[in-house]
Design goal:
two-stranded antiparallel ribbon, about 25% helix, globular
């Protein structure tokens, strides 16, 4: 059987070094799952979208790119998130649901998994 983890347990594994920033994983719905390898269409789409999102982001909001957000059962690293603009908050914690206005995941090969 598979082991489920809370967000707190996942963060504890990171803090003690059991998981490191170089480990290609994230917590999704209480499961530690492998992140998909990046490919040119994915990275190219992110490159094209970045200036558009920054240009159209409303006042009081901030665009984050491939950075973690903290949800009730997950700690994903979406390709983009639009969060309340106060970057100082995010030096000590990740944005949580009340901070998040929009999440965007660029998907090609992982579309089915990303929309479940």
């Amino acid at each position: 059987s598979f082991r489920r983890f809370t967000v707190d347990e996942y963060e504890q594994m990171v803090s003690v070094g059991r998981l490191t920033p170089s480990d290609p994983v994230e917590l999704l719905e209480n499961y530690v799952v492998l992140k998909m390898p990046r490919n040119p269409p994915h990275d190219g789409t992110i490159m094209l979208m970045t200036p558009v999102l920054f240009r159209h982001c409303p006042g009081g909001w901030y665009v984050r790119c491939q950075s973690a957000v903290r949800l009730g059962d997950s700690k994903p690293e979406p390709d983009f998130s639009v969060v309340r603009e106060d970057p100082n908050f995010y030096c000590t914690r990740h944005p949580e649901p009340a901070d998040i206005g929009l999440v965007i995941e660029v998907a090609d090969a992982t579309l089915q998994r990303d929309t479940q």
